[in-house]
Amino acid sequence: MSESLSANGSADEVDETETAPDIDAATADGEPVTAERGAATADGDADRYTFDDLSVVMGTYNEEEAIGTVLDDIERVTNGRAEVVCVDGSSDRTPEIARERGATVIEQEPQGYGVAVREAVLTPDRPVVVTTDCDDTYPMDRLPDFLDAVNDGADVVSGDRLYHGAESMPAFNRFGNQAFAALASLLMGERVHDTTTGMRAYRREVVQDIGWTENTGLSAELLIRPLMRGYDVREAPIEYAERLGETKLDPIEGGAAIAKSIVTVCLEEQLRRF
Ligand SMILES: Nc1nc2c(ncn2[C@@H]2O[C@H](COP(=O)(O)OP(=O)(O)OP(=O)(O)O)[C@@H](O)[C@H]2O)c(=O)[nH]1
Ligand SMILES: [Mg+2]
């Protein structure tokens, strides 16, 4: 039942030493993806996805302080092979910096996190999609581990920031994120540890096959619906760094919207089972 992802592994090896509670698929009446695996790899293993099969996607809203670092990290870790998609609503230099680094930039009026990220996850043609925030908080060095987990059969790999303590997160946010995870776990009947993380890998079919409704609460929705439909969803502990640049989320208003999304989505998914 439990599998672990390494802290610093590569796409070809998974370190089994770190144990963390990962999530396996709920079984009820879901339709887990039967994997159609990716293109042949350089070493001839036709069954495994490689960085050539990976899109890293993000909403970007006035992130000129961070975007260079985030995109450089993706380039370094994937040897420039991952596609990068930014759905951008910025009025600063963010889109120029993204284009300079070869990212695909989709312009969109700023309408909130979920509107941008929904467009971002639905855009790629590649079979594995990883989301991140464009604020240098998430460890792009872990992309190989996330890809390993998908190759190992996961449909969704969700970065759990709270496992290692998330000390760089403001205390109010940390408490809120623990409360969201507790609430979602209670309503789903399945323990999850971080429902609002921005770093996840998805098989493309998962994001294409489910209809998404939430905005600020999209991150929670992207975890809850696949889990409650029986997909193989696993949490992977990740480090979480202090943000570069200004937050785009109001903690009180955003927190209320996320709590509402969790309750709504869990109830909808429970009703869907009848
Ligand atoms: N295009 C677009 N991107 C957005 C919008 N709102 C947020 N984003 C991006 O979505 C990502 C998440 O926003 P953050 O401000 O980091 O929200 P958060 O992670 O909850 O809060 P932090 O603790 O500040 O990191 C960032 O990359 C933002 O630039 C929006 O309206 N449009
Ligand atoms: Mg963020």
TrEMBL record:
Ranges annotated as biased composition (Acidic residues): 12-21
Pfam family name, one: Glycos_transf_2
TM helices/strands, residue ranges: none
CDD domains (UniProt xref): DPM_DPG-synthase_like
Keyword Transferase set for record: yes
Keyword terms, alphabetized: Transferase
Domain Glycosyltransferase 2-like: 55-210
Domain of life: Archaea
Gene3D superfamilies xref list: Spore Coat Polysaccharide Biosynthesis Protein SpsA, Chain A
Gene Ontology MF, one: transferase activity
Annotated region described as Disordered, given as residue ranges: 1-45
SUPFAM superfamilies found in the cross-reference section: Nucleotide-diphospho-sugar transferases
Protein's recorded name: Glycosyl transferase family 2
Source organism of the structure: Halorubrum kocurii JCM 14978
Lineage: Archaea, Methanobacteriati, Methanobacteriota, Stenosarchaea group, Halobacteria
